[in-house]
Amino acid sequence: MTSKNKSSDISTPDFVQEFKHKLNEPLHQNTKQKERHTKRGKLLVHDRINMLVDAQTPFIELSALAAYNQYKNSFPSAGIITGIGVIQGRESMIIANDATTKGGTYVKETIKKHLRAQEIAEQNNLACVYLVDSGGIFLPEQANVFPDKDDFGRIFYNQARLSAKGIPQISIVMGSCTAGGAYIPAMSDETIIVKNQGTIFLGGPPLVKAATGEEVTAEELGGGKLHTSESGVADHLADDDHHAIEICRTIFKSLPVPKKETHVKEEARPTLYAPHDIYKEIPVAGSHQKDVRGLIKHLTDQGEFNEFKPDYGATLVTGFACINGFTVGILANNGILFSESAQKGAHFIQLCNNRKLPMVFLQNITGFMVGKEYEKKGIAKDGAKMVNALANTKVPFFTIMIGGSYGAGNYAMGGRAFGPRLLFTWPNSSISVMGPQQAADVLSTVKKDQAKATGSSISDEELQAMRKQTIEEFEKEASPYYATSRIWDDGIIDPADTRTILSLALSVAQNKSNESSSYGIFRM
Ligand code: COA
To answer: Closest Cα to atom 36, ligand 1: which residue?
Structure first.
C-alpha cells in the first residue's frame, strides 16, 4: 500500500515507542491463566482470531487499551478483543472473549467495547462472529453493567436487530456461556459449540444446587452434546477449537458477500513517502504550528491534494484526494476555527454529501475563536452551521485526532458525539473541554469573582493550590490513554499506520451504500 519512497532515517518519537510498549504489555500479563487455558486444550484468544480470518489479510483491532490503568490493570483490553477481519473474503466483525482475564467476565468497558463493535457492524454491514468464552457479568461490578440501556442486555437486543437487518450473527461457544451470556449463542443465526468445553446455561451447577437441590455437572446441564442433540440451542458440535473455527469458516461460504458501493474508486497509487516519514509532520503541543498540508501529503496517493478554497478561512484546510484509490474529502485544522473557516467547513461537508464521498477529519483544534469581535460577527451561528452539516451527514466519515482536541472544535471536526464510522487517536493527542492552563485560569477567575460577590476573600495560596490541582487533573484526564481506556475512541494508532488503517476503513465502509443527506435549517 505504501511505496517507492524517498526513504529516511527519521527516528520513532518517544511517545510512539511508549505507546508500542503499552500495547504489548497486556500480552505479557495473565501468564498463569494463559498456561491453565492452553493446558485445557483451548487456543488463546488472538490465536483463535488468527485462525478464523483469511491468511495474509489484516485484522484491525479496536480499543486494544480499553480499561488501561483501571481495575488495577486486571482487565487488559477490557477482557475482550474486537476488530474487523476478513473471513472467506467477507469483511466481518469479530468479538472474542478473553477467558484468561477474570474468566472472560464483563465490566463496564467490556460492554462498551462489545456494543461499539456491534454498532460498527451495523453501520458497515459486517457479519458478526462471537467467540464466546465468558463467565458473564463480573459480579462485583454488577450495578455498573447490568440494568441501564447501554448495559449487558443491549448486546442481545442488538443481535436481534442486526439479524433482522440481514447481518449474519454467528457464535462459537468455546467455553462458558452463563446466565445472560447464554443469550449470545441463543440469539445467533447459527451456533457452534465445542464438545466437552463449551457450556450454555441460564444458571450454572452451583446455582441449580442452591435453587432446587439438583446435583448436575456443567456438561450434563449445558454441554455441546445436549445442546446439539436435545435442546437445539446450538447447531453444530465441534471436536475442539480448530474444528469449531473450520465449521465457522464453512458457514461463511454460504453467506452472501455484500455488493460494494462504488464511489469513485481510482486505481490505487502509492504515497511518495515511507510510512515513518509522517513522524516529522506530527504536531507538537506548544511549538510552532506545522502546516497540515505537509501531513496530508503523507496520506494521499502520490501526495496529491486538490484543495478547495485555499485562501478563504485558511485555518481549516479542505480538499479532495485519493487514499489507496478511494476518493475522499479531507478536512484538517491549520489553527483556530474562525467564522470563515466554519462556513467553509459547512460548505465542504455539504459538497461531500452531495457527491456521496467519504470524509476524513484530521483533528488538531484548540477550539473556535473567542472574543467580543468574533461573538459580534456571530461565530456561534457559523460554528453551528458546520456542526449542523456534520450532524446530518450521511456519508461515512473517519476522524483521526492528530493533536489537541478541545472545546466545540471537537464536535465540528468529527468528534465522537457526531458518529464517525471510526475514530482513532495518535499517542501525542490530548482531549479535554479546554487546556489545563485555561481551565485553571477560568476557575481562578470564577473563585475570585465569587469571593468578591459574597464579600469574602480567597488567599493566593488557596488559589495556587486550586490551580495546581486543576492543572494536574486536566493533564491526567486529557491523556490519550485516559481517553482510550474509557473507549472515547476506537483505539490509539501508530501515526505511521494511519494511511493503511484509513484505506481499510474506506474499504469496509463500502459494504453499505450511502444515503443522500437532507439538511435542517442553517442559521444565516
Ligand atoms: N464475577 C466475578 N469474578 C468472576 C466471575 C464472575 N461472574 N467468574 C469468574 N470470576 C473470576 C474468578 O474469581 C477468578 O478471579 P481471580 O483470577 O482473581 O482468582 C477468575 O475470574 C477466573 O475464574 P476461575 O473460576 O478460576 O476460572 P475458570 O476458567 O476455571 O472458570 C468460569 C471460569 C467463568 C467458568 C467460572 O469462573 C464461573 O463459572 N464463574 C461464574 C459464572 C456465573 O455464574 N456468572 C453469572 C454472572 S451473569
So the answer is: 135
